[in-house]
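QA checklist item 7 of 12: single-chain prediction sanity check.
[x] sequence parsed
[x] length recorded as 76
[x] structure emitted
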Amino acid sequence: MRTILLVEDHAESRSSLTWVLEKNGYAVHPVANGRAALAVARRENLHALILDLKFPDLEGAGVLDAVLEQHPGLPA
C-alpha cells in the first residue's frame, strides 16, 4: 500500500484530504505541524508528501527540506 504523509494544520482540511486519500487506497499519516511531520518521516517508509507551507511551529520549506533529506526523491 502507498503511504502518504499529509501535513496540514487546518483540522477540517486535514480530515477531508485524509478521507479522500484513504478512499482512493492510500495509507495516510495525517499530522498538524512540522515537528510531527519530521517524527513521522524518521520512522515511516513514505511514498509521497502533501505539505502545507505555513505552520505555527516551523517554516514549511524547512520541513520539506528535512523530509526530503530523510527520503531523497520523494514526490512532494
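[x] summary fact logged: The CA atoms of residues 33 and 48 lie 17 Å apart.
[ ] second reviewer sign-off
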